[in-house]
Specification:
Elements (H helix, E strand, L loop, with lengths): L1 H13 L10 E6 L4 E5 L3 E4 L2 E3 L3 H7 E2 L4 H8 L3 E11 L9 E3 L7 E4 L13 E9 L10 H14 L8 E14 L5 H13 L4 E3 L1 H4 L6 H19 L1
Helix pairs in contact: 2-3, 3-5
Amino acid sequence: FGEIANRISKEILKKNGEIFTNCKAEKIHFNERSFKVETNKEDFFGDYVISTIPLNSLITKLHPKSPEPVLKCSQKLKYLCLVIVFIITKKKNVLNCQYCYFINRPYNRITELNKFSEKTSPQDENLLSIEISCHNNDEIWNFSKQKIFDTCMKSIKEDGFLDNNDIIDYKVFKVPDVYPIFKKDYYENLNEVNIFLKKIKNFYSIGRQGQFYYGDIDQMARFGFDTATEILKEKK
């Protein structure tokens, strides 16, 4: 999927656009005419801002300061975190399918990425993606990378998928604020936040985090293209 983003970025650069990565948005200043975004590296100025920042974090970054009721509502919108363990294996056929969901295991899903394309890995390797959704105060979120890997491998070995001799290497990534948590009062809180954001001219909050919407990746891409189309129509 990352190749889609890579291709789009090449088109942007071809047209003399600029892409800045690893910048953390710390403050977003707005008025009727323009935006200034302060980051940990430099400040950016623009006529439009498209944000995918989780709503409970976004509202605290806006200046002028958001109204107190909106701030309170945004803090009630919570997200699950995701731990991803990538395991590089010698074993070519692990699951006999593209992905499988699990209960009563440390992880929710295992995906065998070479089943989507053999070009995912070198010819003599295979790649598994192990996904663990959790809260940021859960024990597993705070485990070391080695302990997370060992915890997953215990169940994987018990189920007969792999043993230690099959493993070439592994990588662990922790991603906060991935899946919206739909509590009973989430819609009222989300609606209060959205009403406020819609009042900010030329500002778009989109994506799974920015819309607090549990959509599939193709839907999220569609929202991105639709937003771009809307901005182009306005500019014309």
